[in-house]
Automatic annotation (TrEMBL):
Residues 591-702 form the ABC3 transporter permease C-terminal domain. It is a multi-pass membrane protein. It is found in: Cell membrane. It comes from Microbacterium mitrae. It holds the Pfam family FtsX. Keywords: Cell membrane, Membrane, Transmembrane, Transmembrane helix. Residues 48-68 are annotated as: Disordered. This is FtsX-like permease family protein. InterPro entries: ABC3_permease_C. The chain crosses the membrane at residues 21-42, 191-214, 246-268, 288-305, 326-344, 350-373, 403-424, 586-610, 638-664, 676-700. Signal peptide: none annotated. Residues 52-64 have a biased composition (Polar residues).
Length: 712
């Protein structure tokens, strides 16, 4: 049998078989689309990180700290990355010295960055045009041009490269000969990115597995017919390979096209305050070519192997009871949990141990599921009081693997919901909690670079520090200023008069202000004598309104000894909460995608199971069995395995999530009880699963109709 003959036979069947092939191609297209988006997104996040972290030269191990009087080489610049805030938005600023016409490449700057000029991102340029210069624009000097997309995290990124003169350079600058980013902030983020991609790929792989077995009984019957007509084993394998490979090729091409189009709406998801570029979610040309070649070959190989194995099986054993389930399935789950524990204990490398342990745990849940399904069906069969119950539970006992395989994607989705929700509901241990009567939430907290806190300070540095404080006092709209000095045991000190000027009143002998974000030190009220001769290490600045607050930040940006241009507690919490909400939204979206894919796989598996038994079920309908009995059988075959494994998946998922968060943070974070969103997503996942079964009822009615049965 030639390939042309096999192809002609594959595309020549009747309308029912064409619908089967179309369903297989659609399933492949959906699976390939999601896999392409996930793979491109995983690699794109690393590229995105590189495009956003080059403005942080302090993290580059190859650089040297600036020393006064140093002469820069032609291929060197002095650089310092800082973050400023405007209207609640964080702006990344890279200050550079010696960049008038440098030999080295400063990303996105085509004509150098002389002192007093800057290059800004398009989003920041638009923001500068909307507000007075003394509120924002003066922080960046004269804008020479806009940074291109290739050096930005996304279209909403707020980034600026600002040139400074030597008088603004201090020991916080680093001398570098190149500016490059890094793919991930830490190994922790890389691990979480890998786990997220693998987590959503598992249901996709299950969907493709269901698609490859769609209509397996029809295919086996045709293979036996070919055998009776004289086709050899090679002919049958060639036919199966051509059919599956052709369907796989069409589905792959359609899936890649859908992924290319879907990258546009998916790119509107925000991460770290900015949307994605559509190119971050699209495969490279080489990757597209590999997908077009590899996916159809895999489908063809699997189909050929299945056809070869099916040749030795007579038609009378198609409904043979499955082999007993082995105890090894429990050990797979236990091995996954133990591997996760070992990765945190240092017994195995963390990165590989976590990824392998996560995959083994997910596989273990799928492996244990049929055992629990069989046990529940056995108990339910003894108590069944209806025909549909007896038939459904009996079949579940005979085919626990096949029955559970149909809902395994949904079970994994519940596992992922629990795992990710454990991550997004984690909280930091030991955070300072602000109470009433303490620092107002709209007071600016400004960090200053005071060398005297760690060593000696020169006269020039002392004068610059005094000038910075004086400049803040002269800004119109400043209503109060508290100088914070560093006391013993890294505790902040300030006079009660200064604290009162920013709204902190206390009648006690000593007032305590828990003002700094996260785990920062408290500020103790002190006498004027105890702080005499000290220089401040930070400031509390009270302003009349938001406009004055932005003017203070603009003034502070002109002073090199400012660690940050000031942030209020409200802004700090809002920025942190925004990032947390973004990651929570991203996790929920990923889980819902996995649940949706699993629901589609469940619907396909349900229809496939009915088609494989359509002769038996059709004959029963001809003898008088109502269709509602068939619906009851289908419903029970889906509900029993779901009930069997959903609770187990939820408990293990939340436990594994807590273990991962606790281990990656070295005990610094703990998991809180599940929020309302958790239960909403669980209910939505189960609802999609039940709707998938209901959606399969019309196909089941057609497959078991009297006309089809008489034709069979």
């Amino acid at each position: 049998m030639t390939v042309r003959s096999a192809l002609r036979i594959a595309v020549a069947p009747g309308p029912a078989d064409r619908r089967r092939l179309l369903g297989m191609a659609a399933g492949v297209a959906v699976g390939v689309m999601l896999a392409a988006l996930l793979w491109a997104g995983f690699t794109g996040l690393g590229d995105r990180s590189e495009r956003s972290t080059w403005v942080q030269p302090q993290t580059m191990s190859s650089g040297q700290m600036w020393e006064p009087g140093r002469t820069l080489a032609d291929d060197e610049i002095a650089a310092r990355g800082l973050s400023t805030v405007f209207a609640g938005h964080a702006i990344d600023v890279l200050y550079v010295y010696g960049a008038e016409s440098p030999a080295m490449d400063i990303p996105g700057t085509r004509e150098g960055v002389p002192a007093g000029t800057s290059w800004v991102s398009p989003a920041l340029a638009s923001l500068i045009e909307q507000y007075p210069r003394d509120e924002l624009g003066d922080r960046f000097g004269t804008v020479r041009g806009e940074l291109p997309d290739r050096v930005l995290a996304g279209p909403d990124a707020l980034v600026a490269v600002v040139g400074v003169d030597e008088s603004q350079v201090n020991e916080q600058f680093i001398v570098v000969s190149e500016l490059t980013g890094y793919r991930y902030t830490s190994e922790t983020y890389e691990i979480l990115a890998v786990l997220g991609a693998v987590a959503v790929l598992i249901p996709v792989a299950m969907l493709l597995g269901v698609v490859t077995s769609f209509g397996s009984v029809d295919r086996s019957a045709r293979m036996r017919a070919f055998h009776l007509l004289g086709a050899t084993a090679a002919d049958r394998a060639r036919f199966a390979a051509v059919e599956a490979g052709g369907v796989g090729l069409v589905g792959t091409i359609v899936g890649l096209l859908l992924a290319w189009v879907a990258a546009i709406p998916v790119s509107f998801v925000t991460i770290n305050g900015s949307r994605l570029f559509p190119s971050d979610l699209r495969l490279e040309p080489g990757e597209l070519l590999v997908a077009v070649v590899v996916v159809p070959l895999i489908f063809a190989a699997v189909a050929a192997i299945r056809a070869a194995r099916a040749d030795a099986q007579p038609s009378s054993v198609r409904d043979r009871q499955e082999k007993p389930l082995g105890v090894w399935r429990v050990f797979v789950l236990a091995a996954g949990v133990l591997l996760l524990w070992a990765s945190f204990s240092g017994i195995v490398p963390m990165f590989y141990g976590l990824v392998a342990g996560f995959v083994l745990t997910a596989m273990g849940i799928v492996a244990v599921g049929p055992m629990i399904t069989h046990g529940i069906a056995r108990i339910a069969h003894k108590r069944a009081r209806s025909a549909e119950g007896l038939m459904a539970y009996a079949r579940i006992q005979r085919h626990p693997r096949q029955i559970f395989r149909a809902v395994s994607g949904v079970v994994i989705a519940v596992f992922l919901v629990s795992l990710f929700m454990a991550g997004v509901t984690s909280v930091r241990e030991g955070a300072v909690v602000r109470g009433e009567g303490e620092l107002a939430s709209d007071v600016l907290i400004v960090g200053l670079d005071n060398p005297a806190t760690t060593g000696t300070i020169s006269a020039a540095q002392e004068a610059a520090l005094v000038d910075a404080v004086a400049a803040v006092e002269q800004v119109p709209g400043v209503t109060g200023l508290a100088r914070i000095y560093l006391g013993s045991e890294y505790q902040g000190l300030s006079t009660k008069a200064d604290l009162a000027s920013v709204g902190v009143e206390s009648t006690a002998d000593v007032s305590v202000v828990k003002a700094f974000p996260s785990d920062g030190p408290v500020v103790m009220g002190a006498s004027d004598e105890s702080v005499a001769g000290l220089l401040p290490s930070s400031l509390f600045v009270a302003t009349a309104d938001a406009t004055a607050r932005e003017r203070v930040r603009t003034v502070l940006s002109e002073h090199a000894n400012v660690v940050n241009s000031g942030v209020t507690l409200t802004e700090f919490e809002a920025i942190s909460d925004t990032q947390a909400r973004e990651y929570r939204t991203l996790a929920i979206l990923g889980v819902l995608v996995a649940a949706g894919v699993s629901a589609v796989a469940l619907a396909a598996a349900t229809v496939s199971a009915v088609r494989d038994r359509r002769r038996t079920l059709g004959l029963m309908r001809l003898t008088g069995m109502p269709f509602r009995t068939l619906k009851g059988i289908m419903f029970r075959e889906a509900v029993v395995p779901l009930a069997a494994a959903v609770a187990l998946a939820a408990i293990i998922g939340y436990g594994v999530g807590a273990m991962i968060i606790f281990g990656l943070s070295s005990g610094g974070r703990s998991v809180t009880p599940p929020p309302l969103e958790y239960y909403v997503v669980i209910v939505a996942t189960l609802a999609m699963s039940l709707l998938a079964v209901v959606a399969a009822f019309p196909a089941a009615r057609r497959a078991t109709s009297g006309e089809v049965t008489r034709f069979e």
